[in-house]
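We recall that each integer encodes one residue's backbone shape. We quote one record:
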Amino acid sequence: MLQGAVVNLSEEGQAYRRRLTATLYDKTGRVELVWFQGINYISKSLQPGATYSVFGKLTYFNGLPTITHPEIELYNAAQVSQAGSLQPVYSTTEKLRAKGLSNRAFAKVLQSLLEKLKPGDIPEILPAELRQRYQLYGRYDAYMQIHFPQSETQRRQAEQRLKWDELLLTQLRILKLKINHHQQKGFVFGVVGDHFNNFFGHHLPFQLTNAQKRVLREIRQDTFNGVQMNRLVQGDVGSGKTIVALMAMLLALDNGFQASLMAPTEILAQQHFQGIKELLEPLQVPVALLTGTVKGKERKQVLAGLANGTLPIVIGTHALVENTVQFSNLGLAIIDEQHRFGVMQRAKLWQKNVFPPHVLVMTATPIPRTLAMTVYGDLDVSVIDELPPGRKPIETIHRSENFRPKVMQFLKSEIEKGRQIYIVYPLIEESEKLDYESLKAGYEQVKAWFPDPKYRVAMVHGKQPQDERERNMQRFISGDAHMLVATTVIEVGVNVPNASVMVIESSERFGLSQLHQLRGRVGRGSEKSYCILLTGHELSKESRQRMHIMTQTSDGFVIAEEDLKMRGPGDIYGTRQSGALDFKIADIVHDVEILEETKTAATEILYTDPSLELPQHIALRAGLEQDRSGKGLQWNKIS
């Protein structure tokens, strides 16, 4: 808030360009004030030379400090001393302001309301010991000071306390869910038998990394103790999650149970099926595929084998959760890229046996630590943080459009070495039609650079009939096509070891995590691989930063953390729509320290008092129930 004399009132421009300008002046300098609306009213109400209190967003125009459409009223020394030097900012609109409900008007209403409140009207929910240990404001004082702080220190302390409340209640809810999971009776995998030992001892295609061994030990422990496993395995692209999943399946088989693996797309399900079937051939373990395209006699045989127990392992899409699919004794359900499935689809797998089967969910999208503590906090989390030996790092290069001829020449040289190429185009829902047009134009452009019959180019996108899409994909997987022009349908799971180059068109339109996922489609063979990020000439500061991060690191966890900082959790994981991170004041990106503190506190509280029945926790339980009902007070809705 600024105080000064308003001078130099003048109207400038004509018609819709008309504006009112004035200068706020004091002994330290001047600020330009500008209005584009309500000019007649404001020019009549302002008193030239009088001292005003002014509040608004300060920007610079032509090198001069400027406030556009400021909140302004005659200076009142008594009011200023009463309210303090800091003023609150509330959400308002042009329509509300036109009705006189400006930011200052909101502040006056809140001030008169808060003056009527007594400490008992905002009851304390935190135990005294906790407030003392973490040096937290009382709840009543926090609500008072968040609106009208007397100093920046008080504002920060009030903010810290309100963030603490939000994050602690969230952590308590998540940990209670986790405790309930840990009390859910589960099947006991009591032995490590012939299937597991034979595969581990004689048929592993490569030596397991220490990270893979650690995750297998965690799965073994989960399935041995009589409680249902609910574990998330996250590992970067190519870290070897599938082999861990396969060995967990063999553990289920050794204990007389069946296992299933559900993948989000037909292509990925088929790829898992081919890979796992090949690995299990020496053990003569039957494996079946169940997707929407498996029909007739073949489908009946698969369903019969699952129902009578002669088929121990099935791999498929969401077809696995259909009511017609009945298992003899499902003990382990594995879900790949679990964020691609709805909650109801996942829950249906739980109903496939007397007790819910053990659940192992896998993702190649690294989850930042703060999200793992909130959105996925009810799951036990395993991380495969090593790549198998022999993997060569992918060289990532950023090039603008004018480098296209050189890029195309480089692609030709790779094809002549016997390699294959991906070229991926963006597909954004809002501009889907335009994107498909640019994809088809890009396909024709690629064919012009790489003419038949020397070069063979296939195209894959979501609008194609499924059989045509599968056929084109298979052409590329088998090596019949040198190049695959595609949308992001190839983002997850497709494994073509001979593909050595990923070209991403209009890279500035992709998020960091998606760029990293696409890059992970190459680098799966023994040859050196490349990812080329093609962009337009003019890039925003944020796009340039994304390109810089991609060329500097291949660590998926670093990239996920940066993506979280740049885009926010809701934009990345769809949590904004689910309400999982619908905080009023807390921010998991910037409030990591408070998040850590509240997780520790929640763990201690529920360890000693799982039902929150002790006298010091009664108020906290009431706060938790009120918060869950959505009827809680929201005094802290302030920006």
Remarks:
- The chain is about 45% helix and 20% strand.
- Residues 199 and 283 are 7 Å apart (CA to CA).
- The domain at 395-553 is CATH 3.40.50.300 (Rossmann fold).
